[in-house]
Amino acid sequence: MAEKPSVLIIGGLGYIGRFLALHIHQNELASEVRIVDKALPQLAWLAPEFDEACAGSKFVQADASREQALARIFDRADGKQWDFVFNCGGETRYSQEDEVYKLRSLGLSLAVGKEAAKRGVKCFVELSTGMVYKPDSSPSKEQDKLKPWSKIGVFKLQAEEELAKIEGLNLVIVRLAHVYGPYASQWVATALCMARVYKALESDMKWLWTKDLRTNTVHIQDVTRALWAITGWYTTGKKANWDEKTMGKVPTFNVVDKGVTTQGAMANIIGQVFGIETSFQGQVISMFAKLNLESVVDDVNDELLGPWADLLSEAGITRPGPLSPFMEKELLKDTDLSMDGSRLEKIVGFKYEKPQISKELVEEVIESYKKMNWWP
Question: Which value, in Å, is the radius of gyration of the alpha carbons in the chain?
Answer without folding.
Answer: 21
